[in-house]
Amino acid sequence: MRRSRLLYVPFWAAYVFLYTPIVVLVVMSFNAGESPYVYEGFSLDWYGVLAQNAKIREGLVNTLIVAVGSTALATVLGTLLAVGLARHTRSRTLDALGVLPAVLPDLVLAIGLLVFYATIKSTLGLHSVLLAHTVFGMAFVTAVVRTRLTGADTSLEEASRDLGATPFTTFLRVTLPQLAPGILAGALLAFTLSIDEFVIAYFTAAPTTPTLPIVIYSMVRFGVTPEINALATLLLLVSFTAVIVTQRMTRLTESLS
Amino acid sequence: MRSRARRSRALGRLVFLGPGLTYLLVLLLVPLALLIAFTVFRRGRFGGVVYEVTGENFARLLDPLYLEIVLGSLKLATIATLIALLIGYPTAYLIAQLPRKWKTIALVAIVLPFWTNFLVRIYAWIILLSGPGLVNSTLLDLGLIDKPLELLYNQGTIVTGLVYSYLPLMVLPLYAAIEKLDPQLREASANLGASPARTFASVTLPLTLPAVFTGCLFVFVPSFGNFIIPELLGGGRSIMVGNLIRDQFLKARDWPFGSTLMLALLAVLIILLLLQAWSARRA
Q1: Contact criterion met (CB < 8 Å) for A236 and B120
Q2: Measured between CA atoms, how close is A106 to chain B, in angstroms?
Q3: Which residues of chain A have pLDDT under 50?
Q4: Using CA atoms, how far apart are residues B101 and B104, in angstroms rounded to an integer?
Q5: N or C: which end of chain B has fewer CB within 10 A?
Q6: Whole-angstrom distance, CA of residue A226 vs CA of residue A129
Q7: Which chain B residue shows the shortest CA-CA distance from A22?
Q8: Contact A33, A39 (CB under 8 A)
Q9: What is the pLDDT of residue B238?
Q10: ipTM score of the complex?
Q11: A101 min Cα distance to partner chain B (Å)
């Protein structure tokens, strides 16, 4: 089939557009000079400066606590909910509710939670960020596991029931092992999203418990320094790895489109 | 026997659906209900809310000052959406024609940036577009300009940032729709003497129109309420409705009016979602 060569212009433009800023950022992180803009030769100095930055280390620890905690909670709640939605109800409203946090604009969720914490007079801190991140993490775990259940063969579950197993034995010994790759992929997704999440953390964290994205935000607002290039490069590396692993396990791009 | 089966079904429902739905009730539905309730209350003198019903928050929405910001955000989000469509459609179209192996690689390469830290991606544009940055220094070296251009901190930079951030969300639904098209339809059109342009206009485009709407929605929704891109790439001068909402909650501490703005934002998005669902049903 013939196709116009003109189509190749926007096609390549899209990739150049998407990757130029990223490549420049990575190259500048190895800059020997003081400027974040002008390349003056190779060095790892900024990675050294980064390692010394106490604020960033503190942000990283907070981020990891929140990400591990919210992922664990989201994985358990999301897996149970996905099985519940697929096998124990036919309500389309509940189905929609399960994915609502993933489609709701993050600003709405963030401010809703801020207002909620204020109304119940809860203090803000890592606990409030962790509970908030669980809301959208759970939606992604539910969506990924739910997709697996829809296509799954139910004959094994039926056989288990016919042989007299209780619903819980069936769940633990038949459904869960079948779902394991999906659950793992959902958990990895929730973890990656939690590490990168800014808007919700910005509204639900206390000034004394900033997560890494909040630290980056305040650094960028106060002016650009080369150590952010180094930090950004490391974060890119982590996200790229996680996404490629998830892609291998679930064909992520297909289930999202 | 039967009552035991029914009891075990009810127990299963409770154990599987109970925890997740309770969590969503408390940390999603109650917060949303609070936001909606706040729109009819008066603000307290030192922030907070006085539970006294008033219509003044909705009246304020019509203040030209706020209306202008809302319309300005609509404009920027619309431009960003159209540019994303112009780049995204041909990209999705070509990816769908690639051999299987390259298809996956091309698709992953499109979504990869999307899954990386949002602030890092915005920050990369500051590095690129700043006075001594790569774009200016390249143009200077080529002799195309003789002093650095002011590339940062204007509406064009905001649109660039929005397109950059949400382009993958345009490509994915378009790719899925184009991929599903039966190639025989296009062959038939060509055999009947239609030019490639004619085939595109009367076969491919109409069949992928619902996906075009979906992609536009996916780009428009996060663009419209964004507050980080206007702040970091817009230089804080041209604010969008997201900035306005953020400021009502964190600076002005006028929660009832902030909630009303939020409800207006959600109303725009829900209308668009309904339009999209309607167009998908018609197709």
Answers
A1: yes
A2: 8
A3: 1, 256-257
A4: 6
A5: N
A6: 29
A7: B124
A8: yes
A9: 60
A10: 0.87
A11: 8
